[in-house]
Amino acid sequence: MAQFPSGDFGAATERFVASWSAGISERAARAQELSERVAALSATADGADGAVQVTVDASGAMTDLRLDDRVLRWRADEIAAEVLAVMRRAQGRLAPQVAEAAAETVGADSARSPSTPTGGWPSSVGSRARRCR
């Protein structure tokens, strides 16, 4: 049986599993927070000097439409085109909000593999795990 530099493979393994488990739990909590924050997002845009105002929810669905009396003088196709253009503008404002929420909750380390514990592999466990692959 191989000797491990740390002297105790069992203890190193337990520390590894505890660190890995804590890392997974932390990531799950941050992912849940991100999900809740994104679900609560909305964005509003207006067009035609304020004659049309659209609010969309996190999924991009329209939740509010406000039309000024000025649109009564427009043709139906003009109203429709302006509403759609303003809705797309509002939807476009969601992406930066999602990116900001992601940066504030899951952060830059979110791309790191959840199978690697915080602080990396213990040297004895890592070398053994690499030999077993």
- Spatial separation of the terminal alpha carbons: 18 Å
The best one-word shape is: rod-shaped
Largest sheet: 3 strands, antiparallel
Low-confidence stretches: 111-117, 124-133
Give the count of helical stretches. Answer: 4
Strand order in the sheet with the most strands: 1-2-3
Main structural class:
alpha+beta
Helix percentage range? 40-55%
- Determine the mean pLDDT: 82
Would you list the SSEs in sequence order as H and E?
HEEEHHH
* Integer-rounded radius of gyration: 26 Å
Strand content: 5-15%
| Beta strands, count | 3
Provide keyphrases for this structure.
single chain; 133 residues; alpha+beta; 3-stranded antiparallel beta sheet; 4 helices; 3 strands; 53% helix; rod-shaped
Structure description:
- The protein is an alpha+beta fold.
- Helix content is about 55%, strand content about 15%.
- It is built from four helices and three strands; from the N terminus they run αβββααα.
- A three-stranded antiparallel beta sheet has the order 1-2-3, covered by helices on one side.
- A hairpin with a 4-residue loop joins strand 1 (about 40-45) and strand 2 (about 50-55).
- The chain is rod-shaped, with a radius of gyration of 26 Å.
- The two termini are about 20 Å apart.
